[in-house]
Amino acid sequence: MDAIVKQYLQTYGISEAAQRFLSKAQKMFIGGAWVDGSDGASAEVTEPSTEGLLTHIPMGTVADLDRAVAAAREQFDGGEWSALKPAERERLLQRLADLIELNAHELAEIESIDMGKSVSQALEVDIQGTIDTFRYFAGWATKIHGRTAEPSLPGNYLAYTRKEPVGVVGIIVPWNFPLQTMAWKLGAALATGCTVVVKPAELTSLSALRFAELVQEAGIPDGVINIVTGRGSVVGAAMATHAGIDKLSFTGSTPVGITVGKTAMDQMKRLTLELGGKSAVIVREDADIKAAAQAVANGVFFNSGQVCDAGTRAYIHRSIYAQFLEELIAYTRTLKVAPGLDAECFISPLVSAQQQARVLEYIEAGKQEGAEVAYGGQAVTGPGYFVEPTIFANCRNDMRIVQEEIFGPVLVTAPFDEDDEAVELANDSLFGLAAALYSNDLGRVHSLIPRLRAGSVYVNAHSTIDPCMPFGGYKQSGFGKDLGAEQLDYLLETKAVWITLP
Ligand code: NAD
Predict the structure, then answer these.
(1) pTM of the full predicted structure?
(2) 59 lines ligand 1 (CB under 6 A)
């Protein structure tokens, strides 16, 4: 660990538990054993607020993946896990949730130090969301069943359906909500009786490894959950082709999702793809301007804009455009730009130097295309991969900053005159993850909701996410759903059983 990182951790005073975890040699978790990669390779982990070396993680190989899949297969195809009653799976999921709750503070610290995000937001959103997800799906374990039918065929039959777990699930997750995204996929998989192999993002694997310690402590049988750290191009790509994986559940960018999805289809793997977004926000003239401006800023700048459903394109009625921008800027000014461990940090550093460079390039592209910088627009002097929260005014829909996913604290705005125009602008995107409407006219709101081509529509708020509601995109934002009862359909096969009766 570099001196600058040690100094940072000392300044903010992290827990002894987090210190213990961060100072030990990190290993992968395969078949209940803690192991290095088969070729001994590892990668450096950089702390984003200081740009210093934090630790190393093993870089798994295809051989490591093979061992993880074999362990998961053994448990699924007749191991201890396959024999567990639903109520026992429920109890284990609840125990896991209890342990996460008990260690919530430490997990939030690890997530903040690894990814750069605000520790307070990590506790409130990432860790609480993880706990809630396991508790929600624990409840489902005992409520999965088929149905009986009454065939009209001549003869006498008992016809019924069985819901059966899809098998070994390969889970690939990104770096923006490392633990929570993994939990979204794990909760339903375990509730239905599947076993899993997880590949965390190479930038943010630490919370998954700490989580694996809790998996052991909870008494979940060895091999049910395996964590293989490593590169997407090696471990991730091999997951898409692995014959021992029945379903691939991927969250990440649209280009990688398309590649992974095509490969997985060669073997007819079941698929969930949760991909990129460029979510539109419509602010009507009857909205509460101040409240809407604050919600729009929170909806785009939370997690420094590294949020798949961030409301990154705001279309605002022309009659309130100037006043709305004023409120937006005034509120954005109050958002504290600070290192992730600062309890009041709202705008944290971006995850990596590469992500910072990408966001700054987009900001330059926006300026060159003629968008007006109404606020921000620069990197913050380091150390740390900070970018100022940035607001562009008077954008056109054909600009790259309006069409492409930036994944940083950048909001593009434009005025509109009629609802029809706002809907057209909002839907003019390859993506369709989410949309938000700000209005106090209930009738207009209800008439606009069906016209928005997006998987979630938020009204007078942004990113209100709870495990009881499905999450997933339209268009190139993916297919399949995480969360909600809907997710279970993507982890279950339906078997039709016909019994000829005398
Ligand atoms: P990414 O696509 O680069 O990587 C995502 C994961 O895929 C990582 O674990 C990576 O190692 C792995 N990967 C990379 N190349 C691979 C390959 N060839 N084969 C298999 N796996 C491979 O995405 P990212 O930069 O980590 O995350 C940001 C993206 O994730 C954004 O586009 C964001 O919108 C999206 N995202 C979507 C959701 C959602 O629910 N829709 C949620 C969070 C993030």
Answers:
(1) 0.97
(2) no
